[in-house]
């Protein structure tokens, strides 16, 4: 399964979003090495090679050089890249043909991908990305080693990010705010495939597939099943029916937990509709948090209206990578048949039959009535709170309280746990039990996630 293709296109750009998520099946300028190939390389001890651990945990592959700071996003002309060149030059003794192997957790971890890109950009011609990571290595029953090791750093200079902090931790710089719209999220390379079913037309991203395809709904699914776009609707809806309530009822059909709908705002309606509103949504399903953007388009009729919900949704940790392009892809879904949503039949009904249609929907709506006030309250949260959520979800950052009383700090998604000292230093780790005060003369305090 370490070669599983998620349909994520390879890129030469450093990944700046959530580090946990599906990765490409290949890497430009380098090669993907499998568990079998890496085991042969290590055990053969003939071809010169260096294995870099970019995960930063206690357990590593045998002989791996710890260098999790190589995974940091940024650019190929930043300070990290200069220090990466120095480290690689030291480890290879100046030989560009030495095989450089980079690994992290699994095929759903971008950290080693970033590190491999930095090596490729530094001019190394034999870069091997171990996409399966330590999970694939352990699944094959191969040995590992345990024990804290000092991160590799550039000799003769100040330590790079990832080595300035206590042992086992990675020094991290807070995320600088960028102007709105200044993100660097890119849609998958390749052409959107224009498809058409009996009732809908749509644009299918590379690697995606059609899920449900019926008269009242169409869903398009990502290769890993953790993202989707959809359109679903009904004709014969009562006039002036609240769009957010319509969205709540339709999304509730997926049986989510803790479904939340944000404040509505005007939006461009779907093709064939006259008006629309959109709002941010979030929920949990099977223990996984999801986020997305939903829109309800309305087409008024004589005594009723047709309402259609379009939405772009992904697992929360993947949303930063989808936010800039997936909603636009969802907008390409449109009804191409007069019978979609039951519109043709509704237009042929008289007012009495339309009322009967509404009654047929009553039982489905009633069960959610008791929860509606709670949804309304959640929707009326403050503007500051909404802006905070947008910044975190679309900006690929996480906000932490500063334990020394300074303003909250936005940190990258690279690590789950952060600590701060009095001098404005920050270190990160994925080990919940690690303590930077052990063996350190400084005072480090844990940073807690915060909201606004």
Write structural notes for this entry.
Residues 443-452 have a biased composition (Basic and acidic residues). InterPro entries: Rhodanese-like_dom (IPR001763), Rhodanese-like_dom_sf (IPR036873). Residues 143-156 have a biased composition (Polar residues). Residues 57-146 form the Rhodanese domain. This is PQQ-dependent catabolism-associated CXXCW motif protein. This protein is α+β, with helices and mostly antiparallel strands and 452 residues long. The chain folds into 3 domains: 31-164, 3-Layer(aba) Sandwich (Oxidized Rhodanese, domain 1), CATH 3.40.250.10; 193-389, 3-Layer(aba) Sandwich (Protein Transport Mog1p, Chain A); 397-447, no CATH class. It has 10 helices and 24 strands. The strands form 6 sheets. Strands 11, 12, 13, 14, 15, 16, 17 and 18 form an 8-stranded antiparallel sheet that branches. Helix 5 (243-252) crosses helix 9 (351-379). It is globular. The protein starts with 30 loop residues before the first strand and ends in a 5-residue tail after the last strand. The relative contact order is 0.13. Mean pLDDT is 77; it is low at 153-164, 177-187, 344-384 and 390-396.
> What gap, in angstroms, lies between the N and C termini?
41 Å
Beta-strand proportion: 25-35%
CATH topology description of the largest domain: Protein Transport Mog1p, Chain A
Coarse structural class: alpha+beta
Helical amount among residues, as a percent range?
Answer: 10-25%
CATH architectural arrangement of the largest domain: 3-Layer(aba) Sandwich
- The average pLDDT value, as a whole number, equals 77
Tally of separate domains = 3
Specify the number of helices. Answer: 10
CATH first level of the largest domain: Alpha Beta
CA-based shape? globular
Q: Mind summarizing the main beta sheet?
A: 8 strands, antiparallel
Rg calculated over all Cα atoms: 25 Å
Name the CATH homologous superfamily of the largest domain.
Mog1/PsbP, alpha/beta/alpha sandwich
What's the number of extended β-strand segments?
24
Poorly predicted ranges = 153-164, 177-187, 344-384, 390-396
